[in-house]
Design brief:
The complex is a heterodimer of chains A (243) and B (305). Chain A folds into 2 domains: 195 residues, Rossmann fold, CATH 3.40.50; 31 residues. Chain A has 5 helices and 15 strands. The longest helix of chain A is centred in the middle third of the chain and has 15 residues. The radius of gyration of chain A is 22 Å and the shape is globular. Chain A has a 9-stranded mixed sheet with strand order 11-10-9-12-8-1-6-7-13, with helices on both faces. Chain B contains 9 helices and 16 strands. In chain B, α3 packs across α4 and α6 packs parallel to α9. Chain B starts with a strand and ends with a helix. The chains are: A alpha/beta (243), B alpha/beta (305). Chains A and B meet through α2, α3, β9, β10 and β11 of A and α4, β5, β7, β8 and β11 of B. β14 of chain A pairs antiparallel with β8 of chain B, so a sheet runs across the interface.
């Protein structure tokens, strides 16, 4: 089945600089693939066997990331910035999927840094969508998708077209080697702008500002005197009513 | 300004209804699932419940369009859902129908003039950001639950099925391995992270758990890398979320992936020798010191208690 892997659409908050007045500086941070992206591309590779796997990405950062992991070509919408309104990025990605055309399945990381972009993408495509996906297999023209549920996991049978939002268990365990990384740079890359996709939305959310959080109300006892610290802790736990 | 909440699983529904109540208008719940879920939601402080009954074999997501149509017809200013997979799907489809802004984390909100204002932690909790939403807002509620005092249950109206064949069906259900370790029901949990140096040292912490009548848990690396415990003991984003009264983290650094699994714990205690450990910013009480000295002292204290 023809698959689109949407990847590298967020910035890692660990790359942001926070100054003493609570201002956040993202200038040094580029968009990067998350652990969820890495889990998603594994699912995508399996489902795309015998058909095309196309990468779709936005913003700055490494556009060849998916190509190094099996995508045959990549479409990049470069003039995109993160937005507190997840619907904006959802709209850009949905427009990208439409431009690629003919996809049966869109696979995207569930999004530890913004868990609604993947959902909005599906909503704006008008496709069925499953979140918290662990794995998926093709069974004829339908899919058997394993996803997390409140009490464990469920296997759900679903047809196409469908969006699968894949949640990682942990960091990528087998990053591609140098040979694949170099080969990926030679694969076709189509760069488009938001205007080419007809996307003009700026979103419905304004960031008024950021501030440092109030000092944590945690009470930390000095363990240099273990007995004394434990005594203080037990007294505190008693007053909290949990002993 | 009226609000809707979308409920597909049990969770902090009363907290979500209370957040929606801040807008001053009516709060309507759209519940997709068994009758019991509709009844528990009706007692959570909303004004009315629209209940979409589902068969065990039909996931809530297959009703996303029907729910979205109902929500959009009411044209609410605010729609909230919890962060379970089905809840997020239903929220996004409703947001698209409404043309609403979509915000992935809403711990609570307020009204300033005609604007909705969301104040939430950002950049991994290093800052608090304030968002202003002049139009309709759809958000994932991740605030705290509240106790509803003498609730008068809201009326439940069952919504007729659309008649369309469901596009998805559940063909297999597996219960979380976490059930095996009993962490979901545990009132007290003691967990270990990489601060515990050797496998033999676990006994020290298990003795504390015994004395405190607590269950044992661990971080993902303790299971995946060290293989000291099986997966049923792991707590975190990708495994299980728990809500004990008391959570004692021993040698746990406090990475977001782990801490999101204990967000609902009533009291979090951290024992760590690193003053810079993230967990000291995410706990209620901490002891800064050597766990090999603190844990035996704490075990003795629990035995005396």
């Amino acid at each position: 089945m023809k698959c689109v892997i949407a990847f590298k659409w967020a910035k890692n908050p660990q790359d942001a600089r926070v100054s003493a007045d609570g201002a956040v500086d993202w200038r040094a941070a580029k968009m990067v693939a998350s652990d969820d992206d890495a889990a998603a591309v594994v699912v995508a590779r399996d489902l795309a066997v015998g058909d095309e796997l196309v990468g779709l990405t936005v913003g700055d950062g490494d556009v060849a990331w998916a190509a190094a992991r099996g995508a045959t070509r990549t479409v990049s919408v470069a003039d995109v910035e993160p937005n507190a309104d997840s619907a904006v990025l959802g709209e850009v990605l949905a427009a990208g999927v439409r431009r690629i055309g003919g996809a049966d399945i869109v696979i995207i990381g569930d999004g530890v840094w913004d868990q609604m972009v993947s959902m909005s993408l599906a909503g704006q495509l008008g496709w069925a969508v499953l979140a918290g996906v662990v794995s998926a297999t093709a069974e004829g023209d339908r899919l058997h998708v394993t996803r997390k549920s409140g009490t464990g996991t469920e296997v759900i049978e679903v047809g196409t077209p469908v969006v699968l939002a894949v949640a990682a268990r942990r960091a990528e365990d087998k990053p591609p080697g140098m040979k694949d990384v170099l080969a990926a740079r030679k694969k076709p890359l189509e760069k488009v702008a938001m205007a080419d996709l007809g996307v003009t939305s700026v979103g419905g959310v304004t960031l008024r500002g950021t501030a440092l959080p109030e000092a944590a109300d945690a009470r930390i006892f000095d363990g240099a005197d273990p007995e004394g610290a434990v005594e203080q802790l037990m007294t505190a736990l008693r007053s909290e009513g949990v002993l | 300004m009226d609000s809707w909440i979308i409920v597909t699983e049990a969770g902090p529904v009363a907290g979500m209804a209370a957040a929606a109540r801040e807008l001053g208008g009516t709060v309507t719940a759209a519940v997709v699932g068994p009758r019991l879920l509709a009844e528990s939601t009706a007692a959570c402080g909303c004004d009315s419940v629209q209940w979409f009954s589902t068969l065990d074999s039909v996931p809530a997501e297959s009703l996303a369009l029907q729910v979205a149509d109902l929500v959009a017809a009411a044209s609410p200013r605010l729609v909230l859902a919890l962060d379970d997979p089905a809840g997020r799907v239903l929220l996004a489809v409703a947001a698209t129908r409404l043309g609403a802004a979509l915000v992935s984390s809403v711990p609570g909100l307020s009204v300033e003039g005609d604007d909705l204002v969301v104040t939430r932690p950002a950049v991994e909790g290093k800052v608090v950001e304030t968002l202003v939403v002049p139009g309709a807002l759809a958000g994932v509620f991740d605030g705290e639950d509240v106790d509803v005092v003498s609730p008068v249950p809201a009326a439940i109206t069952e919504v007729a099925p659309s008649g369309m064949a469901p596009s998805m069906r559940i063909i297999e259900t597996t219960v979380a391995p976490g059930e095996a370790a009993g962490l979901q029901q545990a009132e007290r949990v003691v967990s270990i992270g990489r601060g515990v140096r050797k496998r033999e040292d676990i006994a020290l912490v298990e003795e504390l758990a015994d004395a405190a009548h607590a269950k044992m848990a661990c971080t993902l690396p303790i299971c995946d890398d060290m293989r000291w415990y099986d997966e049923s003991h792991v707590v975190g984003t990708s495994t299980q979320q728990i809500a004990p009264d008391l959570y004692i983290a021993v040698g746990v650094s406090g990475q977001p992936q782990h801490m999101s699994g204990v967000r609902a714990a009533k009291v979090i205690v951290a024992i760590n020798n690193d003053p810079e450990a993230t967990i000291f910013k995410k706990c209620h009480f901490g002891i800064l010191g050597d766990l090999y000295e603190i844990v035996p002292a704490l075990t003795a204290a629990f035995k005396r208690a």
